Amino acid sequence: MANDPQLNKTVLSSPVHFLAFGFGSGLAPIAPGTFGTLAAVPLYLLINQFSLAVYLLFVVLSILVGFYLCGKSSELLGVHDHSGIVWDEFAGFFITMIAAPQGWQWIILGFALFRLFDIWKPYPINLIDQKVSGGVGIMMDDVVAGIYALLVLQLIAYGVA
């Protein structure tokens, strides 16, 4: 997979694959979803500088663009939800971090919570992962994981949990 020179060349030479593979982070030989989420952190740090309204617009656009990118990359590769397609992790992490408190501890906690829900796949994430196909299916389980992580992060931030 990540050691496949042809896949590496394809991903690094195609804008659709390059973005869907999280700027190449999805080519990591192990845990590409974790590396994809990690690669989302610098982009989060850039967009977090803007107002909440601009941040939310970016999140919505990342989801909408993700439907296309993930679906098209999957179609071109001939593999539904190839493990290297990690744009969905980018979007899920961005959702997790909506209105998060400032500081590295919150970024680390958001990262951990998102990865937990993305890997664990509690209901209805597991159902979405199994039943919804194409770019929407690839994206939506991570969107819901991001929403779960966002809710827990906000509960912790405001002392409710």
Summarize the helices and strands and which ones pair or pack.
Blueprint: H1 5-13, H2 15-20, H3 32-47, H4 52-77, H5 87-96, H6 104-120, H7 125-131, H8 134-157
Helix pairs in contact: 3-5, 4-5, 4-8, 5-6, 5-8, 6-8, 7-8
What do these coordinates show?
With about 160 residues, this protein is an all-alpha fold. Helix content is about 70%, strand content about 0%. It has one domain (about 5-155). The chain has eight helices and no strands. α4 runs antiparallel to α5 (about 85-95), α4 (about 50-75) runs antiparallel to α8 and α7 (about 125-130) packs antiparallel against α8 (about 135-155).
Task: Quickly describe the structure.
This protein is mostly helical and 161 residues long. The protein contains eight helices and no strands. It has helices spanning 5-13, 15-20, 32-47, 52-77, 87-96, 104-120, 125-131, 134-157.
List keywords for this structure.
0% strand; mainly alpha; 161 residues; 71% helix; globular
What number of domains? Answer: 1
Tell me the distance between the termini: 40 Å
Helix segment tally? 8
The structure class reads: mainly alpha
Number of strands: 0
Mean pLDDT: 95
Estimate the global geometry from the Cα principal axes.
globular
Could you state the order of secondary-structure elements as H and E?
A: HHHHHHHH
Model regions low in confidence, pLDDT < 50 over at least 5 residues: none
Largest sheet: none
Q: How much beta, percentage-wise?
A: under 5%
- Percentage of helical residues? over 70%
Radius of gyration: 15 Å
